[in-house]
Amino acid sequence: xxxxxxxxxxxxxxxxxxxxxxxxxxxxxxxxxxxxxxxxxxxxxxxxxxxxxxxxxxxxxxxxxxxxxxxxxxxxxxxxxxxxxxxxxxxxxxxxxxxxxxxxxxxxxxxxxxxxxxxxxxxxxxxxxxxxxxxxxxxxxxxxxxxxxxxxxxxxxxxxxxxxxxxxxxxxxxxxxxxxxxxxxxxxxxxxxxxxxxxxxxxxxxxxxxxxxxxxxxxxxxxxxxxxxxxxxxxxxxxxxxxxxxxxxxxxxxxxxxxxxxxxxxxxxxxxxxxxxxxxxxxxxxxxxxxxxxxxxxxxxxxxxxxxxxxxxxxxxxxxxxxxxxxxxxxxxxxx
Length: 336
Prior knowledge:
By secondary structure, the protein is an all-beta fold. Helix content is 1%, strand content 54%. It has one helix and 28 strands.
């Protein structure tokens, strides 16, 4: 079966219209194909549809079930029947049945949710206190696996805007604090919050890869965009600037970072050496320019980058594997 959860307006089979509600649609496979189109099922997410609940940022993650296993839960931001913003969760039951959501306000009378990310025993989220305007990052977890969620850690509270909340899947997270004039990057290792970097302008493409935190910002020299990294084990920042590796050719810089690719011990990004655009790798010490111009974000295979691109050394588009040291091997070449 395939089950889809979504938010939006809907007119049900009785002709009743519901605004900004949470819905579920389940389609079953009968051995020959997927079932025909089905009407979505309205889920009770706390208001009984008396008011629009405006669910958003739907996030599915697994949490302990109290019996040594795990169960899937859907987390989302909503507005309760009194108009207060909160976070809510529903235990997923893909084959019918629906109970009201469990909602919480994290100790804030009402807040506007920004981003939700999976976290141990629940989720971590960013939001804004509707009463004071305070921005915060906090978790919402069920450490006892009894179905009751509450915050155990408030990572940060600030008057500045919080952006680009990301997690590494190993108990660490990072986010940007935007004070209006500069971006401030923070890393939380599960115990303490570490200052990483601050610049006038914008940090973009924030991502964890290969045990490092990576992002794109104006180079320290101020000439162009560059990839930066932060070694989370040693709490050290470094710049992986393509300009330094190519003799300072005017116009060098970063095009983008393939932040969905977490190599073993390296950051992979798409750089410009002044004459061509190639896949680069850095481990914080060495910068390697490959011969490949990637045509796709690629994927991970055994800690290596795997994807399609034009390899200048063979003069063709190939499927290629590149390890964290930059060693390239052609996996498929349709000209051979």
